[in-house]
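Students often ask why we bother encoding 3D structure as a string. The short answer is that it lets us treat folding as translation between two languages. Here is a chain of 250 residues written in the first language.
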Amino acid sequence: MPKVDAIVNPSTDEVKRLADSALSSEALLTLFARCRVHYDGRAKSELGSGDRVIIIKPDGAFLIHQNRKREPVNWQPPGSFVMMEERDGILVLRSVRRKPKEILEVELEEVYLVSLFKAEDYEELTLTGSEAEMAEMIFRNPELIEPGFKPLFREKQIGHGIVDILGRDKDGNLVVLELKRRKADLHAVSQLKRYVEALMKEHPKVRGILVAPSLTSGAKRLLEKEGLEFKKVEPPKKTSSGKGRQTTLL
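And here it is in the second language, the structure alphabet:
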């Protein structure tokens, strides 16, 4: 098998051949396609016809991206089982997560490009920088947030993104911390609000705390309006050796 194989405006048979090859050989499968998306699991959702990027990774992760925003509009986590079927002349990608039971189906109305990439990558990402160090500092000294705070997870993946720190307060309530190394703005508040709203679907009481050295007046007003909180925390001081410098990855 070649390391990379791609076909522009493929036929149905070519899509099936390349998809079957990718899924059976642990290659990265990517499609540019007009499609419809159906999800059935803890909730139900429908996404009408539109042009999207579909990425299926060897570990079973399944991502559907629109032409805006960073996060996928639909996704399934690693460990899901992916297959391709043909129904009434239409190719359907089907991803099944067993526990909890979730099914994601993508009807491929038109495929503009299909590709496989036999990627070899065995490295782990090492995070360095102010926000990563802020998280480490809070794990070492959780009382920086408030007495009785207990951090549980760092970089916790949820349906709407990655929470910097997820923990519980002294009363057992779930607490989401959004960390910013510089002055926090409206975007940071909106991001925190999305995480809190997502977690409140499964937890009765969720607190959201924006952790930063300072925040804009607009961010302060929005925090108060949404019932969210702010905690002033300075990031660790940078050393003369240059440690603590942060590179934006996304």
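Translate back mentally: The helical segments are 12-25, 130-140, 186-200, 217-226. Keep this in mind for the problem set.
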